[in-house]
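Why does residue order matter? Because the sequence determines the fold. Keep that principle in mind as you read this record.
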Amino acid sequence: MSLKGKSAIVTGSTSGIGLAYARALAAEGADVVINGFGPADAIETERKKIETDFGVKALYSPADMTKPDEIAAMVKLAADSFGGPDILINNAGIQHVAPVDEFPPEKWDAIIAINLTAAFHAIRHAVPLMKAKKWGRIISTASAHSLVASPFKSAYVTAKHGIAGLTKTVALEVATHGITVNCISPGYVWTPLVEKQIPDTMKARGLTREQVINDVILDAQPTKEFVTVEQVAALAVFLCGDAAKSITGANISMDGGWTAA
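Structure:
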């Protein structure tokens, strides 16, 4: 499959799943806009590496996903530079683990803003551009937590359930415009986001690091293996191809059997 001539925005793509998405799309010939926080030199290294490795153009948008105006500017950057985006991947996300009666309201607000509301703003700006081309692919990173809950993650579970609902709604609205809208729901993927929540889970549940990994995280996945970022990215690339043009409004589980029970 070739995505040459297409362009993509991938939010939260300076590391982890997002960077894997960006590199996988670039490997198929798509120009990309990466986005996210991190050390400027490290981001620039990754941006240049995408261009060098795949012979495409890669731009960086520092857009803050809590600020609608900056999200609009990111979409405009893709439009002005590439005439796109043809592909939008909503991937930016943060996490906080705490009992609901101890959950800091500012953490709730930030998680809902970055994990859910940002996707709404990116979609609403990208859809008119996709409609004009009669082609588009919108993919959001949901989670097994878009289907089932875990304790101490009230904001994250709420946001991911919201992503699943937003995906279905937008898919119905754009179904006759050559645009598909889907979300991918991975189980636990070994990323900086997962690694960072281990200490909070240790504190909340009174467990050791090893107990959190084996008895909490991987306990949920019958395969007893982490999903890899490359596997998630490969599924996204498939969803961008013609073979997947009839897949829309879908929440695709990729969780080692977690939600099968």
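The longest strand covers residues 179-186.
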